[in-house]
Request: fold
Amino acid sequence: MTSEAHLETLRGEVRGWLDVHAPKGWRNARQSHEQFAADQRAWFLKLVEGGYAIPHWPAEWPGGGRSLAEQKVIYEELTRADCPRLLLSFVSTYHAAATLLECGSEAQKARYLPAILKGETWCQGFSEPNAGSDLAALKARAVRKGDVYVVSGQKVWSTMAQYADKCLLLVRTGADGPKQAGITFLLMDMKAKGVTVRPIHQIQGDEEYCEVFLDDVEVPVADRVGEEGAGWAVAQATLSSERGLTLMELSYRMRGAMHYIASLIRKNGLENDAGVLRDFGQLVTRADAACAIADRFLANRIAGIERVGDASLVKNTYSRVLREYSALGLRLGRMDEQYLAPIVFGDLNTGNFMADFMNSYAWTIAGGSEEVQRNIISERMLGMQREPKGWAA
Amino acid sequence: MMIELSELQDAAQKAFPADGLVPDRDVSWKLIAEMGWLMIDLPEADGGLGLGRDALATILFEQGRVLSTAPLIPALLALQAIVASPDLAGREDWIGRICGGEYVPLNLLPGSASVQADGTLAGRITGVFEADMASHVLAGLPGRYVLIPNDAPGVTVTERPLWDRSRRLFDIALDGFRPDPALVLAEDEAAARVHDRISPAAMVALAADSLGGASAALDLTVEYLKTRRQFDRPLAMFQALKHRCADLKTHIASAEALLWSRCIDDAASNIDLGAMKAMATDTYFMVVEEMIQLHGGIGLTEEHQSHLFLKRALLNMQLCGSADNWREAAGRQALAKFAG
Reply:
């Protein structure tokens, strides 16, 4: 099915469609988070219309049923055309969809999946102030009262929760046994009484994450995914929904953003400074390596020969090079980077190197921190022994 | 003909098992000639296997893992220079002799020679591996590639003892050496063309050797940390050490990904490949530096294998152009691509 010729035909189709529909000048129109959200909604609906928004969904959905190799082609073309990344709808089309498709009831699928294609957005209510890398330590409490769960607690780092209509929520329904055992997975309406969302003001001025406060919020039992106490297993389906396309896309975008560094070298007359050229040459080579390892990872997944820990190698490569990229830009931009300048909301490689540098931490911290990835690489890939559990202060 | 890379890898691992570090040179060389590895990337029209650079890299990666003593890289590069010299008298004969195991190395460090008033050459060629077993040296000199018989008048071969125990290196001094016009492969522009033809293979070969060595060094280090116990637990249980090993693994994996993608990328420039080699040799150095530290005192002893990797990594860094030069060239190339 996915022969080379077939993939190239698809590539031509996507490219032709993007020639007409790819947004232009979107970075200039993103001076506020509201503008960002508006451009995201419009672009998502346009992609749904074109049939390229949900290539990873099953074939019965319009534009779905694409193999991973085909998805890769679509993402390569979106990146090549420098389209905005889909951030606002990311949790909806990946995490929410994977959860519902793998673990949801027929009624839940019928109710929630079509709405996603009409623009309904989801956020994730997993992390808590005291449950970050150690997610299973979460404490938000849900008590069953008849047909509803009554939920109280606090969630944090919920991406784009201020715009979300629905929430994938992990709560504690039991305190006995291992901490994973008492966790239940709920689908919560963000408009429900008792839900308060507070955007987190990030150091670079963007607001991509929120705190979500839950005060006796009623969630119908019908909106529970899986059995009570089986939420941890459901959450694994949620978290494994993304299959490596994002890091490939990000790596190529970072590679494409090297022109910002080249401009700074020219602007400051450093074209023949051997030290600067070496640093630039090393960075470009490292960025090429980040693209190569992301490609290789996807190729291995497509071939079914991925190993445990491979994803961690890709993430730690990308996030480190992203930091090096923005740090070199800061150094070469000199004093110019110290004067406040407008940021581009919701973008990682903008040429505003102070903002880009601060934003780069998102990738060494979010989605499993660099340190958690190192644990995975060393313990699960290299086989280094785990520490005994049960340490208590 | 399609030979899977995994088959080549299996064959290389069977011929040179992981527990046989620094195998005997002469036995290795004979085995390598028998396995046909000299013919791997030789075009089929010239009687070779016509496989790609990824096949070459696969073999040299495995040779790097065992700290190979046989001079496969200099021999392969000399062979490529001959293949790239259509006017060389007896070209087919030379190809046959080298593929059959007659050792003719290319020098992997710079050489210089000038033509004297009497037509003889005077100068010095450095970086000739295992010259004691060579019949000729294929000298890459500025503006000239020439085959020099080791025993010709005016040729003096002198060993330059190395810290690296896995290889032997020689200088060739020329004084009153009269080159046989039939043994001159290329001069001037033709020599530059030969250089550009063999440079990619040199970069791929050194990168593969380095990353093979780096991965073996990390494997041995992790194995040691898993078995060595202090404070009633294996050292591998300490997170401070785990994270260092994880970072080394990440560096090796990304440098390897670049090697495997660039070695089959026809659009990769010689500078792209040089920068890739620089990344690979830097990675090798980073790993062996940590290898010694993570082994503690035992890593400082001669009986332990760590120093063998360290010394080989440091020599690899010096071969075929410095990392500084390649990086600078890569920066210049990238700058030119983003024209102001």
About this structure: The radius of gyration of chain A is 22 Å. The mean pLDDT of chain A is 94.
